[in-house]
Amino acid sequence: MSVAADVAVPGAPRLTVGAQAALITALVGALCLALEPMAPWLGAWPKTWVLPMTDWVGTGVSWLLDWIKPVARLFSDIMVYPMGWANTVLNATPWPMVIGLVTALGWYLGGLSMAALAFVGLGLVLASGYWHEGMNTLALVAVSVPLALVVGGGIGILANEVPRLKGAVQAVLDVMQTVPTFAYLTPLLLLFGFGPVVGLIASAIYAAPPMARNVMLGLERVEAEIKEAAIMSGGTRFQQLFQVEIPSASKQIMVGFNQCLMAALSMVIIAAVIGGFNDIGWEVLLTMRKAQFGPSLLAGMVIVIFAVVIDRMSAVLATERKRYDLRVVWAVLAFAVAFTVLFWSSLPGASEVAMLDGVAESVDRGLTRFTQTNGVALEALKNNTLYYVLLPLRIGLDQAVLPFTWGFMWTPAMSAWVFGLGAGLGLLLAWRGNLTGGIVTMILFGMIETGVTNLPWPFVLTGAAALGYVAGGRRLAILVVVLLGTILLSGLWDRALLSLYLCGASVFACAVVGGAIGVASAIWTPVWRVVRPICDMLQTIPLFVFLIPVLMLFQIGEFSAFLAICAYAVVPMIRYTRHGLVDTPEEMMEAAISSGATDWQILRDVRAPYAAPTILLGLNQTILYAFSMLVIAALIGTTGLGQSIYLALGQADVGLGISAGAAMAILALIADRLVQGFAEERRKALGL
Amino acid sequence: MSTSDTPAIACRNLWQVFGPSADKALTEALARSGGDTNAAAADLRALGYIPAVQDASFEVREGELFVIMGLSGSGKSTLVRCISQLLPGTGGEIRIDGENVVGASKQKLTELRRRKLGMVFQHFGLFPHMTVAENVAYPLKVQGVGRKERRARAQEVISLVGLDGREESFPRQLSGGQRQRVGIARSLAVNPDIWFLDEPFSALDPLIRRQLQDEFLRIQGSLRKSIVFITHDIAEALKLADRIAIMRDGKIVQIGTPTEIVLQPVDDYVREFSKDVAKGRHARVASVMQAGDGTRGPDDPGLTTSMTLDAALARCMELYQPVPVRDASGAIVGTVNPSDLAAALQVDDA
Fold it and tell me: Which residues form the ABC transporter domain (chain B) (predicted)?
């Protein structure tokens, strides 16, 4: 890699910031590689340099938790009552009444289609035989959502009223959204003990930030003149806020309500991991562990139904909606009551319906047959991806290439060839005028040779700092180094790199596949018509459910985790890519057409550059999605931070849980800031 | 209560500076420049502050229609927000009916707004979740006026602005012109003495704008409010104003009647504005008349002091000798030479 330096020096004064950053990174990488045999501490951070931060965090947090435990326990004792009530009400109400009520609500909110959705959805839940488990989950949501609404709304209003708090609140909300879901659970477990209350609190905590965010955003976006009109009308601050500003912001607040509901549902299901409550998430987990995929799919379907029904119904609130005839509501309710009363004695119990058990069994059988007949193909797909893509990326070509996997042994000469190829390509690019691209190519070749988890830490720090400097200047570079340094010192570095590798691989796959699908959807409307409902669906499904199908086909392991992450994280990439491309202003398109550009030229020269900032934002979302799924995927076997968090939960090790959670949040935060920085820079360059 | 010679609004040395602890920065800048306001403003700008209003002093008399005119960014909207105390004002004094409102307590300001002030906004500022009637009645609602009473009063002002029959509509169902009528009705609901209008017609298309201007003049003709009217349109200013204040970069550069602005601009900036204006439509005969019963020819085309130059010139197209000018009562108060009329219409090529 020293060749690069020779080439670049003559042109040194003309180097761009990007080229300089890439050059320094390449140099540090080359140095580390060269010196590692003499100074092994350059490769792996020595164990003796690790500070026992995890223990400190554990001690500190435990002390803090002990201190607030009495209050927490009191709170949990109080919360038992509303939970009990919600449970009793939902479970004791005859199922025809529940179905009737939800159907009537569906009609009231969205007319016939919504009523049909509600009716068919709940009908399926009943038929699945998981009615009571489902109602238990809903009961948790029903209690945690009001809690989250009050807390989130309160925080939002407070931040709006006291501008000095706004920055701090914003920062806390940012952090709360990057901290992985499982990481919440460990300290809560210590505080509240085992039991459903933990799930309740966790879901309330998890669901409050979107509400707070949307309330803040909504209030902020109320037109200045509307606020002024309220002042000039002589309203007191209280009147201004509650009679004018909050109603004016109602649409945005309803978006918050929708997100709050979905977050609560998602978290309630994840919280089932700690058990103690006979709910639908627990059912999925149980059946999954027993490898009963039919029932597990059935239970997963119940979750999906809840998610879809709740999402679609509450999303209607945030739109301009029509009024539907109230008489239909009464008619549906009357019918439900009549039905219940007339057939009371002959009605089967909700859990006895279970009409789909046969289906579940046949699914199970069919699946077994499918995996048996296609076992070779599935196995081949899995192994090929593992051996030829994931493993080299993880530990490098020099270790991944073995006679057992690739059919031959890796030799130092081959390493030289790889480096040579990289250097050649890099030089070619540099010679064609793209110096930065050339150096980055060399760096990438070096990384494939070494493997992400074997990267020397000085190289990672320099590389991240260089990216930070290019994306957001000195401050971002320093922030990145300090944050990564904390992980390094805490001894979680190896695990962080493992997480980074899996995340990176999935994000890369998502970027390629999602980008391609996004482009296709932007060009051909029929494609979008097919892709769109799939995207909607994937975004509504709680994370947990993604695990079921991959587990069925590919068993526990890294490849399954990889697939689950990709399935979940690909959606924003598709959406943003399409949106960015479709969003090109009509005038620019017309200008290009009248200049005589072909469709392909327009796409390449006009639409793609214009869409770049939007696509980068999509990539950013994809990264964040990948990180949040990474932790859930720990359930089906990943290594790295996700696994640590999950283990910590099992052992109630609050120090490890919080530290690993924080490390994960740090990685997500850094990725977020870097990509946002690049997006911002692009936007500025385009004058947007 | 105010006596007739107390101005409705009096501003003295009013400043609005944006930036961290602007009060202190302004005091210091004024001290450094020894009271030279231009130097102080330049000083503040150099320090990164934005002096949006600089040392504004003017009075609005009772029943007067006072127009503040300027290009965007000249500080006119900031100025009206200072007077209505939507912005605190960094320095100086604002008296409304003789009472200083700078630094007044919250309750006092609320009280003032409930009784005396009304405001109309450029983009209407209507509450999207309330019907027309609810929007108009809102200023009464916050005071605790009963439902029946406020409904009746709202109906009155809705009729005044010609929106009968649209009471139950929501703002989104109305056209721009209708929306601004609601804005006007709402601002009149408490029957305020002082009426602020911040570019009320700028967001409307030209035809509707003219229609609303005429209606505004009709309403003002019967209500005689003390008005501060903001606009960036010189034609609108000349059409509506009793007096005009022209603003530039936060400073008031000239205050005068429409005729004065058109015929005696103080500097090139003001002249630039009036350049495209058909002066004959706005300047009056009085401005070019020689007072007294001077020498005059035999013709008497019947000119009066309040006639526009255009109208006067039309009557003496073929006359060369000075002609008499009468006042409203018909008495001869002066003479005017037809050639002076023509000269006054000349567009100056400054």
Answer: 25-274
Q: Which CATH superfamily is domain B282-345 in?
A: CBS-domain (3.10.580.10)
User: B325-342, pLDDT tens digit by residue?
Assistant: 888 888 888 888 888 888
Q: Do residues A266 and A284 lie in contact, with contact meaning Cβ atoms separated by under 8 Å?
A: no
Q: Which of B82, B110, B145 is the best residue to mutate to test the A interface, defined by the most A CB atoms within 10 Å of its own CB?
A: B110
CATH code of the domain covering residue A195: 1.10.3720.10
* Cα angle: A498, vertex A500, A503; to 5 degrees: 110
* Domains of chain B by residue range: 62-88+106-279, 282-345
Q: Is A276 exposed, middle or buried (0-12, 13-18, 19+ CB in 10 A)?
A: middle
CB contact B125 to A (< 8 Å): yes
Is the pLDDT reported for residue A687 higher than 80? no
Give the residue from chain A lying closest to B136, CA to CA.
Answer: A233
Task: Provide the number of structural domains found in chain A.
Answer: 1
A268 closest CA partner among A258, A282, A287, A256? A282
Q: Closest-CA residue in chain A for B111?
A: A234
Q: How confident is the model at residue B174 (pLDDT cuts 50, 70, 90)?
A: very high
From chain B, pick out residues whose CB is under 8 angstroms from the CB of A225.
121-125
pLDDT in tens, A13-53: 567 778 888 888 888 888 887 777 777 777 777 888 888 88
CB atoms within 10 A of CB B162: 13
Whether the Cβ atoms of residue B333 and residue B284 lie closer than 8 Å to each other: no
Q: Do A235 and B110 touch (CB under 8 A)?
A: yes
**pLDDT tens-digit series, residues B130-158:** 999 999 999 999 999 999 999 999 999 99
Would the CB atoms of B138 and A243 count as touching at under 8 Å?
yes
Q: Report chain A's mean pLDDT, rounded to a whole number.
A: 85
Quote the pLDDT of residue A146: 94
Across the range A335-346, mean pLDDT stands at: 84
> Which residues from A are below 8 Å from B138, CB to CB?
230, 233, 235, 243-244
Between chains, do A232 and B110 touch, taking CB under 8 Å as contact?
no
- C-alpha distances (whole Å) from A454 to each of A12, A398, A450, A465 are 31, 11, 6, 19
Rounded mean pLDDT, B69-94? 90
Q: Could you give the dihedral angle defined by the CA atoms of residues A204, A208, A209 and A213, in that order, rounded to the nearest 10 degrees?
A: 170
Long-range contacts of A375-382 (CB under 8 A, 24+ apart): A378/A553, A378/A554, A382/A554, A382/A557, A382/A559
Instruction: Map residue B120 onto helix, strand or coil.
Output: strand
Residue A245 resides in a domain: yes
A187 within some domain? yes
Q: What is the pLDDT of residue A647?
A: 85
Q: Shortest CA distance to B232 belongs to which of B242, B252, B247?
A: B247
Q: What is the pLDDT of residue A2?
A: 38
Taking the C-alpha atoms of residue A522 and residue A516, their distance in angstroms, rounded to an integer, is: 10
Residue A494 clears pLDDT 60, i.e. is over it: yes
Q: Which domain holds residue A159?
A: 140-282
The stretch A356-367 carries a mean pLDDT of: 78
The CATH number of B62-88+106-279, from 3.30.390.50, 3.40.30.10, 3.60.110.10, 3.40.50.300, is 3.40.50.300
Task: Give ipTM to 2 decimals.
Answer: 0.81
Q: Is A244 on the interface with B (CB under 8 A)?
A: yes
- What is the number of residues in chain B? 350
Q: Is residue A671 part of a domain?
A: no
On whether any CB of chain A is under 8 Å from the CB of B114, the answer is yes
- CB contact under 8 Å between A228 and B125, yes or no, is yes
Q: Is B41 exposed, middle or buried (0-12, 13-18, 19+ CB in 10 A)?
A: buried
Residue A9 predicted with pLDDT over 60: no
Topology alike, domains B62-88+106-279 and B282-345: no
- Which one of B114, B121, B130 makes the best mutation probe of the A interface by having the most chain A beta carbons within 10 Å? B121
